[in-house]
Write a structure and sequence with these properties.
The complex is a heterodimer of chains A (about 120) and B (about 350). With about 120 residues, chain A is mostly helical. Helices cover about 80% and strands about 0% of the residues of chain A. Chain A has a domain at about 20-95. In chain A, helix 2 (about 25-45) runs antiparallel to helix 4 (about 50-70). The chains are: A mainly alpha (about 120), B alpha+beta (about 350).
Chain lengths: ~120, ~350
């Protein structure tokens, strides 16, 4: 295993952050971050291209909100962080599928053009 | 976010882990670890995706490593959480790599597309040029054909014109020949007619001449005493000055006798016209001579009228000395010039 870069370490620390003794503000911050990520995924079109992932993120976000209401700060923070990761998956999947879709369309155009050229290039 | 930096948590976790590992007997590999590592390995083994992993892949790799490490201090919830997060981070890394791969391929494809479009345009331009050349050739050929057709038409027209001209010339010649024949016929007829006419005229003229000569002979016979002479103007009878006394205009009685045969002839030939002209010699006043010559001519006229000749048949003129028949310098000449001339013009 490679030595972890300091930047990566920081990210990891953030990712694995839920403190044992999380308080209300930790939970609220996590929920805010998760909510932002979910909204971002929704805007990019995840509801159609990564519906399952988005649904998981939304469910976890709701669960986090419930835990917050129940003053279960720890549970709320865990759920919120997991929701954020799922939202990231939903968002990145949406981007990947869009790029692949665009690629496929362009490929189709190029293939058509190629065939056309081949047909025209043949002696008439 | 500083709240997430777990100094105390890390310390407690480390202590817990030491305690847990001390109690552990035969540590078994967590199946979740295997699953997670397999998932990461699949991604890493795909060179196209692995090379495009970037920061996300590094993070995922670290998360998997961390989650794979046994941690006795962590609660079950924490450990589950680590697996969950590591798994999602691997998925995110894979999706990001797939997106970048698609984008890279897209860029290459755009270049290929541009090359193809260029090729298509070149090909199209080539074909357009080819078509233009063909069209020019076709046009030139069509023009040549048209030219040939026009030439042929012109030649045909020329032949037609020539034929028409020849026909027209032939018709003209025929017409001219017919006209000429007709003219010849007409002329011949007219010549024949005119010859007959001329012959008739000649015959009449001969008859007339014969009659005139007979008449003249008759007249001359009757007027033999008066010495009638045939002249251009007609039968001319010259009456000398013997008819009148000198400078007088009355006829002498002897003169009247001389004129008797003339009066007789004129009474017989009632159609015969008479011209009487008085002449003098050059002696004396011209005006006087003119009057004298006129009076002498009138004297002859009066005698003839008295003898029964109609005055309407007679013309009288006094011409004085202007028409001498002889030299006025001698008395014989002057005697000849003093005269009255009677002309019978019908007897030419």
């Amino acid at each position: 295993m490679k030595t972890l870069m300091p930047g990566v370490t920081l990210v990891l620390l953030l990712a694995f952050a839920p403190a044992v003794l999380a308080d209300k503000s930790d939970a609220t911050n996590a929920i805010t971050a998760a909510k932002a990520m979910v909204r971002s995924a929704e805007r990019s079109g995840a509801d159609s291209l990564a519906a399952v992932e988005l649904k998981m993120a939304q469910d976890l976000l709701n669960s986090a909100q419930s835990s917050l209401d129940d003053r279960e700060w720890q549970d709320a923070e865990f759920a919120a962080s997991k929701s954020q990761r799922d939202a990231e998956v939903a968002d990145s999947k949406t981007q990947a599928l869009k790029a692949e879709q665009a690629l496929a369309e362009l490929q189709s155009v190029v293939n058509t053009l190629k065939n056309e050229l081949k047909r025209q290039g043949d002696p008439q | 976010m500083k709240a997430y930096i777990p100094y105390k948590t890390a310390g407690l976790a480390l202590l817990g882990a030491l305690l847990l590992s001390a109690c552990a007997t035969a540590p078994t590999v967590d199946p979740r670890v295997t699953a997670l590592q397999n998932k990461l390995e699949t991604l890493e083994n795909n060179p196209q995706l692995a090379s495009r992993g970037g920061e996300a892949l590094k993070t995922a790799r670290a998360a998997v490593q961390l989650a794979s490490q046994p941690d006795k201090r962590a609660t079950d919830q924490e450990i589950a959480y680590r697996f969950y997060v590591a798994d999602r981070l691997v998925q995110t890394a894979e999706m990001r790599a797939r997106a970048r791969l698609a984008e890279d391929r897209n860029k290459d494809l755009v270049k290929e597309y541009e090359t193809l479009v260029l090729e298509a345009r070149t090909m199209e331009a080539d074909r357009a040029r080819e078509q233009a050349t063909q069209a020019r050739q076709n046009t030139a050929e069509a023009m040549a054909q048209r030219e040939r057709a026009l030439q042929e038409a012109a030649e045909a027209q020329k032949l037609r014109d020539e034929a028409q001209l020849a026909q027209s010339v032939a018709m003209d010649s025929q017409r001219a020949a017919e006209t000429a024949a007709q003219a010849a016929r007409t002329e011949a007829e007219s010549a024949r007619l005119s010859a007959a006419d001329e012959a008739e005229k000649a015959r009449l003229a001969r008859a007339e001449t014969e009659a005139a000569r007979a008449e003249m002979e008759f007249m001359r016979g009757r007027l033999s005493d008066l010495e009638a002479k045939q002249t251009e103007r007609g039968l001319l009878i010259t009456l000398g000055d013997v008819l009148f006394e000198f400078n007088k205009s009355e006829l002498k009685s002897g003169g009247q006798r001389n004129l008797l045969p003339l009066a007789d002839v004129l009474k017989e030939r009632v159609d015969q016209r008479v011209i009487i002209e008085g002449h003098t010699d050059s002696i004396g006043n011209h005006a006087y001579n003119m009057t004298l010559s006129e009076k002498r001519a009138e004297a002859v006229e009066q005698y003839l009228v008295a003898q029964g000749v109609a005055v309407s048949r007679i013309n009288v003129q006094g011409l004085g000395p202007d028409f001498p028949v002889a030299d006025n310098s001698s008395s014989e000449g002057r005697q000849l010039n003093r005269r009255v001339e009677v002309i019978l013009p019908n007897l030419k």
